[in-house]
Design brief:
The complex is a heterodimer.
Chain A: H1 3-24, H2 33-46, H3 52-59, H4 63-73, H5 84-98, E1 104-109, H6 115-126, E2 133-139, H7 142-150, E3 152-154, H8 158-167, E4 178-181, E5 184-187, E6 195-199, E7 211-216, H9 225-238, E8 239-247, E9 262-266, E10 271-274
Parallel strand pairs in A: 1-2, 1-7, 2-6, 7-8
Antiparallel strand pairs in A: 3-5, 4-5, 8-10, 9-10
Chain B: E1 7-12, H1 16-24, E2 35-39, H2 48-56, E3 60-63, E4 68-69, E5 74-77, E6 83-86, E7 91-95, H3 107-118, E8 122-126, H4 135-143, E9 147-151, H5 160-168, E10 173-175, H6 177-187
Parallel strand pairs in B: 1-2, 1-8, 2-5, 3-5, 8-9, 9-10
Antiparallel strand pairs in B: 4-7, 6-7
Chain lengths: 276, 190
């Protein structure tokens, strides 16, 4: 694609973003553009659509198609125990302090298809905290929440997940958490017995509870600085005093307006603690 | 010198560490063009590459953080397990979507994104590697008026990657690492 086409494409996408906001209420204006453009191009290719106009027509005549678009444009690639050191650090540096609370509340923001959620639940189970923890698992996308609830993942990734689990300090046989069946595995539903799943849009929705720990990994990278700041302020409002915030490996709150209220508990693994 | 801020994007896989070090070692600490380097790495590998490059180069070496601004005098390394995209305001966005060409980071992703923003001010350099990733991105850079350079396949530790570039982009400059270094130095503005 030559750059003249690229410029035109970008203008059309900008108009489309506005229309999506008015028609469907999803606000993508604060999303990092380079990624949005790339995702939309990819989606056009997948659906054999020739232009943004053709996409617009389908999006506004078919809400099922829109759901599909939403799922593809927001990135839902995830894995269990991604960056094992993050989970090891949670286990060693955060969970012992959370265990001093009689009842623990955790928000897994942008939980996608649930790989991170099940990793977290396994950690809590092994540290004896699962029974008195309530996890709020939210995502912009209703469809992935249904998948997350099921806890069914492809068996092809299990070798990698198993070694990541042990690298994260896993204490049992990893296979004791799931049953295998026809190329997929289903994780034990007791792991998510205390999990509430519901749709929440970080770009537009507000704080809905108070938490001891918020985990939001590799979600902020898809937002521009302004939206990142909005979301971090939302997390700040939603954390108890001395609560913890875990971000993705390359995400930081240093440049944000809330940075003064936080200290790094584990700088490399981007785990922060609220100071007031 | 043409007006407008330039960007050098450089990619490699097998043999790419050695080749990129050989090119970058010759550049001064105040080199006027930011350099973004995408090397295929083992997934989830820790950032020791940054230390290695930082020790050997006069330029400042950083592993890309999300929304990192691209500045002269710096080499930015694509982190393991993320694609690096470039925004209109010359900051980097990270992206953890699907692998491309079996890779994340993928060279094609960064090269294409660089050309979208820096257009004819993009310099793409594809070095030694055992994958075909990068040639489509290099072609996109060339088609949009940027400069496309492939390491001479005869010199490369593994010729697959630069050879794919030569085949795909007949107009690209084919150079050994010493010539690539000289060429980059000729773009340096004091």
């Amino acid at each position: 694609m030559k750059l003249e086409y690229e410029k035109l494409f970008e203008q059309e996408v900008e108009a489309l973003i506005e229309e999506i906001h008015t028609q469907y209420g999803y606000d993508f204006s604060g999303y990092a553009r380079a990624s949005v453009y790339r995702r939309i191009k990819r989606f056009l290719g997948q659906k054999h659509l020739q232009s943004v106009d053709a996409l617009r027509e389908k999006l506004f005549s078919d809400s099922f198609f829109f759901e599909n678009f939403l799922q593809e444009v927001t990135v839902n690639v995830t894995e269990m125990f991604r960056d094992a050191t993050f989970f090891l650090s949670l286990r060693e540096n955060v969970l012992p302090l959370l265990s001093t609370y009689p009842f623990i509340k955790i928000w897994d923001a942008g939980c996608s298809t649930g790989e991170e959620l099940f990793s977290l639940a396994i950690l809590l189970e092994e540290e004896g905290l699962l029974g008195r923890t309530k996890i709020y698992a939210t995502d912009i996308n209703q469809k992935v929440l249904l998948q997350a609830k099921e806890g069914i993942f492809s068996a092809s990734n299990m070798a990698a997940y198993t070694s990541a689990y042990y690298a994260a300090g896993g204490k049992r046989e990893f296979s004791s958490y799931y049953t295998s069946n026809y190329g997929s595995v289903k994780f034990s539903s007791h792991l998510v017995k205390n999990v509430v799943f519901y749709p929440h849009n970080l770009a537009t929705d507000s704080s809905f509870n108070e938490f001891h720990l918020i985990i939001c990994r590799n979600v902020l990278i898809y937002f521009n600085r302004q939206l990142q700041d909005r979301v971090l302020r939302l997390f700040d409002e939603s954390l108890v005093s001395l609560g913890y915030l875990g971000l993705g490996k390359k995400e930081t709150l240093i440049m944000s307006s809330i940075s003064g209220n936080y200290v790094a508990v584990d700088k490399n693994n981007r785990i922060y603690r609220k100071t007031n | 010198m043409e007006a407008g801020l330039k960007l050098v994007v450089m990619g490699g896989s097998w043999g790419g560490i050695k080749a990129s070090l050989a090119v970058l070692e010759g550049l001064p600490a105040d080199f006027s063009i930011p350099i973004l380097l995408v090397l295929h790495r083992l997934r989830n590998q820790e950032g020791s590459l940054q230390e290695l490059f930082d020790k050997k180069l006069r330029l400042r070496v950083l592993e890309v953080e999300d929304k990192e601004p691209l500045l002269p005098g710096h080499v930015y390394l694509a982190p393991s397990n993320y694609h690096v995209l470039i925004e209109r305001d010359h900051t980097c966005s990270l992206d953890d979507s699907e692998l491309e060409n079996y890779s994340r980071p993928a060279i094609d992703v960064t090269f294409t994104s660089a050309a979208d923003v820096f257009a004819e001010n993009t310099v793409g350099v594809l070095l030694s590697g055992a994958s075909r990733d990068g040639s489509s991105g290099l072609s996109y850079i060339f088609d949009n008026g940027g400069i496309a350079i492939a390491q001479d396949p005869a010199e490369a530790e593994v010729a697959v990657m630069p050879q794919a570039a030569v085949d795909r982009v007949p107009g690209c400059k084919v150079m050994n690492v010493a010539r690539i270094k000289e060429f980059l130095l000729s773009l340096h503005e004091h």
